[in-house]
Protein backbone atom coordinates (compact mmCIF):
# COMPACT_ATOMS: atom_id res chain seq x y z
CA UNK A 1 0.00 0.00 0.00
CA UNK A 2 1.04 3.62 -0.49
CA UNK A 3 2.15 5.39 2.68
CA UNK A 4 3.20 9.04 2.83
CA UNK A 5 5.79 9.73 5.53
CA UNK A 6 7.18 13.02 6.79
CA UNK A 7 10.96 12.64 7.21
CA UNK A 8 11.59 16.22 8.32
CA UNK A 9 10.33 19.75 7.67
CA UNK A 10 8.71 19.84 4.20
CA UNK A 11 10.16 16.42 3.39
CA UNK A 12 7.25 14.13 2.44
CA UNK A 13 8.15 10.83 0.77
CA UNK A 14 5.95 8.08 -0.61
CA UNK A 15 6.66 4.54 0.60
CA UNK A 16 5.33 1.12 -0.34
CA UNK A 17 4.51 -0.85 2.81
CA UNK A 18 2.54 -4.02 3.70
CA UNK A 19 -1.20 -3.79 4.28
CA UNK A 20 -1.75 -4.26 8.06
CA UNK A 21 -3.93 -6.98 9.58
CA UNK A 22 -6.45 -6.06 12.29
CA UNK A 23 -5.78 -7.43 15.76
CA UNK A 24 -8.51 -8.57 18.12
CA UNK A 25 -10.97 -5.75 18.71
CA UNK A 26 -9.73 -3.80 15.70
CA UNK A 27 -10.96 -3.03 12.22
CA UNK A 28 -8.96 -2.38 9.11
CA UNK A 29 -9.98 0.77 7.29
CA UNK A 30 -9.50 1.74 3.70
CA UNK A 31 -8.82 5.43 4.10
CA UNK A 32 -10.84 7.63 1.73
CA UNK A 33 -10.63 11.31 2.75
CA UNK A 34 -8.27 13.10 5.15
CA UNK A 35 -8.40 16.79 6.06
CA UNK A 36 -5.22 18.85 6.37
CA UNK A 37 -5.29 20.26 9.90
CA UNK A 38 -3.29 23.16 11.31
CA UNK A 39 -1.40 20.69 13.51
CA UNK A 40 -0.36 18.82 10.36
CA UNK A 41 0.97 22.12 9.04
CA UNK A 42 3.04 22.61 12.19
CA UNK A 43 4.66 19.21 11.74
CA UNK A 44 5.11 19.73 7.99
CA UNK A 45 6.70 23.15 8.36
CA UNK A 46 8.64 22.79 11.62
CA UNK A 47 8.88 19.07 12.36
CA UNK A 48 7.39 19.71 15.78
CA UNK A 49 4.54 21.07 17.86
CA UNK A 50 5.88 22.62 21.03
CA UNK A 51 7.95 19.95 22.78
CA UNK A 52 6.65 17.11 20.57
CA UNK A 53 9.26 16.35 17.90
CA UNK A 54 9.27 14.10 14.85
CA UNK A 55 12.38 11.98 15.35
CA UNK A 56 11.47 9.13 12.96
CA UNK A 57 9.62 9.26 9.61
CA UNK A 58 5.96 9.74 10.56
CA UNK A 59 2.63 9.45 8.80
CA UNK A 60 0.69 12.58 9.72
CA UNK A 61 -3.02 13.34 9.29
CA UNK A 62 -5.89 12.62 11.69
CA UNK A 63 -9.10 14.11 10.26
CA UNK A 64 -10.18 11.03 8.38
CA UNK A 65 -12.97 8.95 6.91
CA UNK A 66 -12.84 5.47 5.53
CA UNK A 67 -14.55 2.18 4.73
CA UNK A 68 -14.25 -0.88 6.95
CA UNK A 69 -12.20 -3.37 4.95
CA UNK A 70 -11.73 -6.18 7.49
CA UNK A 71 -12.59 -6.92 11.11
CA UNK A 72 -10.49 -8.52 13.82
CA UNK A 73 -11.42 -11.25 16.26
CA UNK A 74 -14.25 -10.37 18.60
CA UNK A 75 -15.59 -7.46 16.56
CA UNK A 76 -19.35 -7.88 16.20
CA UNK A 77 -20.75 -4.36 15.83
CA UNK A 78 -18.84 -3.38 12.67
CA UNK A 79 -19.29 -4.80 9.19
CA UNK A 80 -17.10 -4.81 6.10
CA UNK A 81 -18.22 -2.06 3.72
CA UNK A 82 -19.53 0.35 6.35
CA UNK A 83 -18.62 4.02 5.95
CA UNK A 84 -17.11 5.60 9.05
CA UNK A 85 -15.57 8.71 10.49
CA UNK A 86 -12.42 7.90 12.42
CA UNK A 87 -12.06 9.08 16.01
CA UNK A 88 -8.30 9.80 16.18
CA UNK A 89 -8.03 9.70 19.99
CA UNK A 90 -7.31 6.28 21.48
CA UNK A 91 -7.28 6.86 25.22
CA UNK A 92 -6.08 4.20 27.66
CA UNK A 93 -9.42 4.01 29.49
CA UNK A 94 -7.67 3.10 32.74
CA UNK A 95 -6.10 6.27 34.13
CA UNK A 96 -7.71 8.71 36.56
CA UNK A 97 -8.61 11.13 33.79
CA UNK A 98 -10.22 8.51 31.55
CA UNK A 99 -12.23 7.12 34.44
CA UNK A 100 -13.47 10.63 35.24
CA UNK A 101 -14.62 11.11 31.64
CA UNK A 102 -11.78 13.30 30.36
CA UNK A 103 -10.47 11.02 27.61
CA UNK A 104 -8.98 13.91 25.62
CA UNK A 105 -6.38 14.67 28.30
CA UNK A 106 -5.36 11.06 28.93
CA UNK A 107 -1.56 11.15 29.43
CA UNK A 108 -1.28 7.71 27.81
CA UNK A 109 -3.29 8.60 24.71
CA UNK A 110 -2.43 7.43 21.22
CA UNK A 111 -3.41 10.07 18.67
CA UNK A 112 -3.17 9.70 14.91
CA UNK A 113 -0.31 11.64 13.35
CA UNK A 114 1.35 12.49 16.67
CA UNK A 115 4.70 10.81 17.43
CA UNK A 116 5.04 7.87 17.70
CA UNK A 117 1.56 7.02 16.35
CA UNK A 118 1.33 7.01 12.55
CA UNK A 119 -1.60 8.91 11.10
CA UNK A 120 -3.92 8.66 8.13
CA UNK A 121 -2.03 9.69 4.97
CA UNK A 122 -1.90 6.02 3.91
CA UNK A 123 -4.21 3.68 2.08
CA UNK A 124 -5.01 1.31 4.95
CA UNK A 125 -4.79 1.44 8.73
CA UNK A 126 -5.97 -0.58 11.72
CA UNK A 127 -7.67 1.02 14.71
CA UNK A 128 -9.96 -0.06 17.59
CA UNK A 129 -13.44 -0.86 16.27
CA UNK A 130 -15.03 1.36 18.93
CA UNK A 131 -13.29 4.37 17.34
CA UNK A 132 -14.74 3.76 13.87
CA UNK A 133 -17.96 5.77 14.06
CA UNK A 134 -20.63 4.87 11.54
CA UNK A 135 -21.98 7.71 9.43
CA UNK A 136 -25.24 7.81 7.47
CA UNK A 137 -25.31 7.61 3.69
CA UNK A 138 -26.35 11.27 3.55
CA UNK A 139 -22.86 12.31 4.73
CA UNK A 140 -20.09 12.16 2.11
CA UNK A 141 -16.57 10.96 2.81
CA UNK A 142 -15.24 14.52 2.58
CA UNK A 143 -17.87 15.70 5.07
CA UNK A 144 -16.95 12.80 7.34
CA UNK A 145 -13.36 14.08 7.30
CA UNK A 146 -14.73 17.34 8.74
CA UNK A 147 -16.27 15.51 11.71
CA UNK A 148 -13.07 15.78 13.76
CA UNK A 149 -12.65 19.60 13.52
CA UNK A 150 -16.41 19.98 14.00
CA UNK A 151 -16.11 17.89 17.16
CA UNK A 152 -13.37 20.23 18.39
CA UNK A 153 -15.79 23.13 17.86
CA UNK A 154 -18.51 21.31 19.78
CA UNK A 155 -16.12 20.56 22.65
CA UNK A 156 -14.83 24.14 22.76
CA UNK A 157 -18.38 25.47 23.03
CA UNK A 158 -19.17 22.91 25.72
CA UNK A 159 -16.19 24.24 27.68
CA UNK A 160 -17.64 27.75 27.44
CA UNK A 161 -20.82 26.57 29.21
CA UNK A 162 -23.08 28.93 27.30
CA UNK A 163 -26.40 29.55 28.99
CA UNK A 164 -27.96 31.29 25.99
CA UNK A 165 -27.95 34.80 24.58
CA UNK A 166 -24.27 35.58 25.10
CA UNK A 167 -22.29 37.93 22.90
CA UNK A 168 -19.63 35.65 21.42
CA UNK A 169 -16.45 36.52 19.55
CA UNK A 170 -14.63 34.03 17.35
CA UNK A 171 -11.09 35.00 16.41
CA UNK A 172 -10.14 33.21 13.20
CA UNK A 173 -12.42 31.65 10.60
CA UNK A 174 -10.51 28.59 9.53
CA UNK A 175 -12.11 25.17 9.93
CA UNK A 176 -11.90 25.27 13.73
CA UNK A 177 -13.22 28.83 14.02
CA UNK A 178 -16.09 28.06 11.64
CA UNK A 179 -16.86 24.90 13.60
CA UNK A 180 -16.93 26.92 16.83
CA UNK A 181 -19.16 29.51 15.15
CA UNK A 182 -21.69 26.88 14.10
CA UNK A 183 -21.59 25.02 17.41
CA UNK A 184 -22.14 28.28 19.30
CA UNK A 185 -25.10 29.09 17.07
CA UNK A 186 -26.70 25.70 17.72
CA UNK A 187 -25.98 26.07 21.46
CA UNK A 188 -27.95 29.30 21.78
CA UNK A 189 -25.37 32.08 21.58
CA UNK A 190 -26.91 35.49 21.03
CA UNK A 191 -24.76 37.68 18.81
CA UNK A 192 -21.73 36.06 17.17
CA UNK A 193 -18.96 38.29 15.87
CA UNK A 194 -16.13 36.79 13.80
CA UNK A 195 -12.74 38.42 13.26
CA UNK A 196 -10.85 37.20 10.18
CA UNK A 197 -8.49 38.99 7.75
CA UNK A 198 -9.16 36.69 4.75
CA UNK A 199 -12.10 37.92 2.68
CA UNK A 200 -13.35 34.49 1.53
CA UNK A 201 -13.37 33.25 5.10
CA UNK A 202 -15.33 36.26 6.31
CA UNK A 203 -17.88 35.61 3.57
CA UNK A 204 -18.23 31.98 4.57
CA UNK A 205 -18.58 32.98 8.24
CA UNK A 206 -21.56 35.14 7.26
CA UNK A 207 -23.08 32.25 5.34
CA UNK A 208 -22.65 29.95 8.34
CA UNK A 209 -24.38 32.25 10.79
CA UNK A 210 -22.10 35.06 11.97
CA UNK A 211 -24.05 38.19 12.85
CA UNK A 212 -21.07 40.47 12.25
CA UNK A 213 -17.65 40.03 10.70
CA UNK A 214 -14.57 42.15 11.30
CA UNK A 215 -11.45 42.52 9.19
CA UNK A 216 -8.78 43.05 11.88
CA UNK A 217 -6.30 44.20 9.25
CA UNK A 218 -8.55 47.14 8.34
CA UNK A 219 -9.74 48.40 11.73
CA UNK A 220 -9.01 48.55 15.43
CA UNK A 221 -10.56 45.20 16.33
CA UNK A 222 -10.69 45.94 20.05
CA UNK A 223 -12.68 49.14 19.48
CA UNK A 224 -14.92 47.42 16.94
CA UNK A 225 -15.78 44.57 19.31
CA UNK A 226 -16.51 47.12 22.00
CA UNK A 227 -18.78 49.12 19.68
CA UNK A 228 -20.72 46.01 18.65
CA UNK A 229 -21.35 44.96 22.25
CA UNK A 230 -22.62 48.20 23.80
CA UNK A 231 -19.14 49.18 24.99
CA UNK A 232 -18.82 46.06 27.17
CA UNK A 233 -16.93 43.57 25.02
CA UNK A 234 -17.99 39.99 24.22
CA UNK A 235 -19.02 37.67 27.05
CA UNK A 236 -16.98 34.83 25.57
CA UNK A 237 -14.03 34.95 23.17
CA UNK A 238 -12.92 31.83 21.31
CA UNK A 239 -9.30 32.15 20.19
CA UNK A 240 -9.04 29.99 17.06
CA UNK A 241 -6.22 31.75 15.21
CA UNK A 242 -3.30 29.70 16.46
CA UNK A 243 -0.80 32.52 16.00
CA UNK A 244 1.52 34.16 18.50
CA UNK A 245 -0.18 37.03 20.29
CA UNK A 246 -3.75 35.84 19.64
CA UNK A 247 -4.37 35.01 23.30
CA UNK A 248 -3.21 38.52 24.26
CA UNK A 249 -5.63 39.99 21.72
CA UNK A 250 -8.45 37.88 23.16
CA UNK A 251 -7.77 39.20 26.67
CA UNK A 252 -8.04 42.79 25.42
CA UNK A 253 -11.32 42.16 23.59
CA UNK A 254 -13.30 40.16 26.18
CA UNK A 255 -15.44 42.00 28.70
CA UNK A 256 -14.82 42.31 32.43
CA UNK A 257 -15.65 38.99 34.14
CA UNK A 258 -15.70 37.37 30.71
CA UNK A 259 -14.34 34.06 29.54
CA UNK A 260 -11.70 33.08 26.97
CA UNK A 261 -11.61 29.63 25.39
CA UNK A 262 -8.18 29.08 23.82
CA UNK A 263 -8.37 26.62 20.94
CA UNK A 264 -5.52 27.68 18.64
CA UNK A 265 -1.98 26.29 18.82
CA UNK A 266 0.67 29.05 18.53
CA UNK A 267 3.90 28.72 16.57
CA UNK A 268 5.99 29.24 19.69
CA UNK A 269 5.17 27.08 22.71
CA UNK A 270 3.91 30.09 24.66
CA UNK A 271 0.54 31.74 25.29
CA UNK A 272 0.77 35.41 26.26
CA UNK A 273 -1.60 37.39 28.48
CA UNK A 274 -1.17 40.85 29.96
CA UNK A 275 -1.22 40.31 33.72
CA UNK A 276 -2.82 43.66 34.52
CA UNK A 277 -5.60 43.24 31.94
CA UNK A 278 -6.54 39.69 32.87
CA UNK A 279 -6.33 40.37 36.61
CA UNK A 280 -8.31 43.60 36.57
CA UNK A 281 -11.00 41.99 34.44
CA UNK A 282 -10.97 38.87 36.65
CA UNK A 283 -11.11 36.73 33.54
CA UNK A 284 -11.71 33.02 33.27
CA UNK A 285 -9.51 31.23 30.75
CA UNK A 286 -9.92 27.61 29.66
CA UNK A 287 -7.75 25.75 27.17
CA UNK A 288 -9.31 23.34 24.69
CA UNK A 289 -7.50 20.02 24.14
CA UNK A 290 -8.80 18.35 20.98
CA UNK A 291 -12.35 17.06 21.69
CA UNK A 292 -14.04 14.83 24.21
CA UNK A 293 -16.91 12.52 23.24
CA UNK A 294 -18.16 15.07 20.72
CA UNK A 295 -17.83 13.24 17.40
CA UNK A 296 -21.28 11.65 17.66
CA UNK A 297 -22.83 15.07 18.26
CA UNK A 298 -20.95 16.49 15.27
CA UNK A 299 -22.21 13.66 13.05
CA UNK A 300 -25.77 14.13 14.29
CA UNK A 301 -25.70 17.87 13.62
CA UNK A 302 -24.22 17.39 10.14
CA UNK A 303 -26.84 14.78 9.26
CA UNK A 304 -29.67 16.98 10.57
CA UNK A 305 -28.40 20.06 8.70
CA UNK A 306 -27.78 22.03 11.89
CA UNK A 307 -24.19 22.61 10.78
CA UNK A 308 -22.62 22.72 7.33
CA UNK A 309 -19.53 20.54 6.88
CA UNK A 310 -19.65 20.43 3.10
CA UNK A 311 -18.82 24.12 2.68
CA UNK A 312 -15.62 23.70 4.70
CA UNK A 313 -14.17 20.94 2.50
CA UNK A 314 -13.08 23.41 -0.17
CA UNK A 315 -10.22 21.69 -2.04
CA UNK A 316 -9.24 18.12 -2.99
CA UNK A 317 -5.81 16.70 -3.74
CA UNK A 318 -4.60 13.16 -4.46
CA UNK A 319 -2.21 11.63 -1.95
CA UNK A 320 0.73 12.31 -4.28
CA UNK A 321 0.06 16.04 -4.10
CA UNK A 322 -0.24 16.37 -0.33
CA UNK A 323 2.69 18.82 -0.24
CA UNK A 324 0.75 21.12 -2.58
CA UNK A 325 -2.23 20.91 -0.24
CA UNK A 326 0.02 21.80 2.71
CA UNK A 327 1.48 24.81 0.94
CA UNK A 328 -1.97 26.06 -0.08
CA UNK A 329 -3.30 25.65 3.45
CA UNK A 330 -0.33 27.52 4.93
CA UNK A 331 -0.76 30.38 2.46
CA UNK A 332 -4.54 30.56 3.11
CA UNK A 333 -5.09 31.29 -0.58
CA UNK A 334 -7.84 30.53 -3.08
CA UNK A 335 -10.52 30.46 -0.38
CA UNK A 336 -9.12 27.31 1.21
CA UNK A 337 -10.70 26.22 4.49
CA UNK A 338 -9.91 22.51 4.56
CA UNK A 339 -7.85 20.86 1.86
CA UNK A 340 -8.96 17.24 1.62
CA UNK A 341 -6.54 14.51 0.63
CA UNK A 342 -8.39 11.93 -1.47
CA UNK A 343 -6.42 8.84 -0.48
CA UNK A 344 -8.54 6.24 -2.25
Number of strands: 19
Helix content: 25-40%
pLDDT < 50 runs, ≥5 residues = none
Based on CA inertia axes, which overall geometry fits?
A: globular
N-to-C CA distance:
11 Å
**Major β-sheet, in short?**
7 strands, mixed
Count of alpha and pi helical runs: 11
- Roughly what fraction of the amino acids lie in strands? 25-35%
How large, in whole angstroms, is the Cα Rg? Answer: 20 Å
CATH architecture of the largest domain: Alpha-Beta Complex
CATH class of the largest domain: Alpha Beta
Structural class: alpha/beta
What do you see in this structure?
There is one protein chain. This protein is α/β, with parallel strands linked by helices and 344 residues long. The chain has two domains: 2-146 and 309-342, Alpha-Beta Complex (Quinone Oxidoreductase, Chain A, domain 1), CATH 3.90.180.10; 150-287, NAD(P)-binding Rossmann-like Domain (Rossmann fold, 3-Layer(aba) Sandwich). The chain is 28% helix and 25% strand. The protein contains eleven helices and 19 strands. The chain has helices at residues 38-46, 96-99, 141-145, 147-160, 175-186, 199-207, 221-227, 246-253, 275-281, 295-304, 322-331; strands spanning 2-8, 11-16, 26-35, 48-49, 52-53, 63-71, 83-86, 89-90, 110-111, 124-128, 132-134, 168-171, 192-195, 212-214, 236-239, 259-262, 284-287, 313-318, 338-342. Strands 3, 6, 7, 10, 11, 18 and 19 form a seven-stranded mixed beta sheet that branches. It has a six-stranded parallel beta sheet with strand order 14-13-12-15-16-17, sandwiched between helices. β18 (313-318), α11 (322-331) and β19 (338-342) form a beta-alpha-beta unit. The chain is globular, with a radius of gyration of 20 Å. The protein starts with a strand and ends with a strand. The mean pLDDT is 96.
